[in-house]
Amino acid sequence: QHNLLWGEAPARAEIRRLVHWFEYKFSREVGTPLLSERVIKRFSGEGTISSVVMRAAMSNLQIHLDYIDWLAEQGNWLTGRQISLADLAAAAHLSVLDFLGDIDWSRHPEAKSWYAKMKSRPSFRDLLGDQVSGLTPPDHYCDLDF
Fold first, then answer.
1. Is 32 domain-assigned?
2. What is the pTM of this model?
3. 10-69 pLDDT per residue, tens
4. I need a surface site. Which of 40, 58, 98, 124 has the fewest CB within 10 A?
């Protein structure tokens, strides 16, 4: 059993910082706008999809994925030597966007490799079977070695 908030105070602070990054910054700049435009508006009928919002969120996504690439290059996991709460927070957000087909993994090889490790974890596999009526994930979504 792993402690997901491991290490000395500086390591724990970094884990907390990254959790906050994904739960607030990533969510505000990428996840919430894309989910709102692509799913909520579609099924609720609340207005038309805003191409301005979509473009901004997709542009922000590339910046965040560049950062994930860099973090993944530094160690096996986003915060270093072992999996942490930050990895789970990031993977949860990315799995939604991956389900929607919004991530071009070919542009982010380190993020892709890290995400493939996350998808292969037994605790994550159940998410890959999730379905949303009216939406079909890309073929690679359920593929652990995409």
1. yes
2. 0.90
3. 999 999 999 999 999 999 999 999 999 999 998 888 889 999 999 999 999 999 999 999
4. 40
Q: Count of CB atoms within 10 A of residue 138's CB?
A: 15
* DSSP letter string, the chain: ---SS-SSHHHHHHHHHHHHIIIIIIIIIIIHHHHIIIIIHHHH--S---HHHHHHHHHHHHHHHHHHHHHHHHSSBTTBSS--HHHHHHHHHHHHHHHHT---GGG-HHHHHHHHHHHHSHHHHGGGG--BTTB---GGGG-TT-
| Count of the separate structural domains present in the chain | 1
Summarised one tens digit per residue, pLDDT across range 116-140 is 999 999 888 888 878 888 888 888 8
Is residue 43 in a domain?
A: yes
Q: Please name every residue paired with 135 in a beta bridge, in sequence order, or none if there are none.
A: 132
| Burial state string for 4-37 with b = 16 or more CB within 10 A and e = fewer than 16 | eebbeeebbebbeebbebbeeebbebbbebbbbb
CA-CA distance, 125 to 119, in Å (whole number)?
A: 6
Q: Which domain holds residue 127?
A: 9-142
